[in-house]
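ingest -> validate -> predict -> emit
validate: passed (alphabet ok, no gaps, 138 aa)
predict: started
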Amino acid sequence: MQIQITDTVTEDDQNALLTGLRAYNFQFLKTTNFGDLAVYWRDEHHKIRGGLIGKIKGDWLCIEFLWMDDALRKDGYGTKLMQVAEQTARERGCLHALVDTMSFQALPFYQKNGYQLQMTLDNFPESGAARHYLSKTF
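emit:
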């Protein structure tokens, strides 16, 4: 047996770790409510102009990515996107949502939409920046 150090994470290597991790975790968790959730704004040419990608993990919607085209910001599109994602998550059995955002991104947006700041990591990923973790109970 040997230790390997690499700067390249292959899909096969990642899948091997995830398979082992999931096998361990699922001994302790119900696995009936896990899956993906995506909500997109598409234009008339079917181009994505904004969207949200998340994972449902038990009672939680974990928002992984949220992006809106600059032209659609400040017009309620992001809020509508969040409302649809949250409603869909509730219909799928979720009771809460979790999201993280960088200090230069969308902290006020999430707070405006009812998310409560739970924790801040200062100087992440570098000095002068911060990463904020927020949650919401439906």
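The longest helix spans residues 11-25.
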